[in-house]
Task: inverse folding
């Protein structure tokens, strides 16, 4: 497999070096979220992620996995707590500064969120929007360097032959690889993946999980993944977070996840767990 060098613009190189020294890419301090200002959907969430770590969040339906993941880049505003990403408290940022910080956080969705009528290449280049002025974005003005980066990422993900296909002509697994490529073209430090394999068959799921693991290992990008499949989490993760009713019940190495822990995390849903 070829290796892609994801060089950041010079002005950000200093930040990158700093984060290597500190190693912690993301820290959540006492995060809570209520949608109606009455019930807390997630609460007391403390979490630290290191550079290049692969971490899975597991838990029953409605435990708050998506809510937690989307609070991290403030797609959903947390009700309280602090989010320190890449040395910056992003809970305190205004819109413009948040937009800048978000360029370093890629997101991968269960239903891909691609523009079906556009090509693979165009969808991937959309990942550069955060670096553009509104006008440049609307006009689709991308540099040669950005186009080369998009192509090299697509090649790495095995999508070279599909570059000029419309996205509605792709299989689910291929669409998800486009979703990953769009996130990678942002040159992120953190990749948030919200149930990336929930709509895929086992073979496509394996391809996607292998790519995500490779991204954390060879590119040093921190990957945080919501999963329904406990066995997939066990196989791929450096660390597993177990959520139940919005509280963190488990945060440790996969080998330390006992049957008792699984029962505590899933409660009555334990019999419905998905195993490949
Ligand atoms: N925008 C919203 N407004 C109100 N309630 C919401 C909203 N989004 C989620 N919820 C509620 O928050 C709770 C947690 O939902 P969330 O999607 O975060 O859980 P999850 O663990 O990701 O579930 P699943 O595995 O089924 O996707 C659920 O009770 C859900 O109904």
Result:
């Amino acid at each position: 497999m070829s290796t892609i060098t994801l060089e950041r613009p010079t002005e950000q190189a200093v930040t990158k070096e700093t984060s290597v020294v500190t190693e912690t890419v993301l820290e959540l301090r006492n995060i809570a979220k209520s949608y109606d200002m009455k019930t807390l959907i997630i609460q007391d969430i403390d979490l630290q992620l290191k550079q290049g770590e692969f971490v899975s969040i597991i838990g029953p339906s409605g435990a708050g996995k998506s809510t937690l993941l989307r609070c991290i880049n403030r797609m959903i505003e947390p009700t309280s707590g602090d989010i320190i990403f890449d040395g910056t408290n992003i809970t305190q940022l205004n819109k413009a500064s948040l937009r800048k910080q978000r360029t370093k956080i890629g997101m991968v969705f269960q239903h891909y969120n691609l523009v079906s009528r556009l090509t693979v290449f165009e969808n991937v280049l959309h990942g550069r929007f955060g670096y553009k002025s509104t006008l440049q974005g609307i006009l689709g003005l991308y540099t040669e360097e950005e186009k080369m980066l998009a192509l090299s990422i697509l090649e790495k993900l095995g999508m070279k032959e599909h570059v000029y296909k419309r996205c509605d002509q792709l299989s689910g697994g291929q669409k998800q690889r486009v979703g990953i490529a769009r996130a990678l073209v942002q040159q992120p430090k953190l990749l948030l993946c919200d149930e990336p394999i929930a709509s895929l068959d086992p073979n496509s799921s394996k391809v996607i999980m292998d790519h995500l693991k490779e991204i954390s290992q060879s590119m040093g990008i921190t990957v945080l993944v919501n999963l329904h499949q406990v066995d997939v989490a066990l196989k791929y993760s450096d660390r597993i977070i177990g959520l139940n009713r919005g509280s963190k019940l488990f945060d440790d190495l996969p080998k330390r996840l006992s049957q008792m822990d699984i029962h505590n995390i899933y409660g009555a849903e334990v019999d419905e767990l998905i195993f490949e």
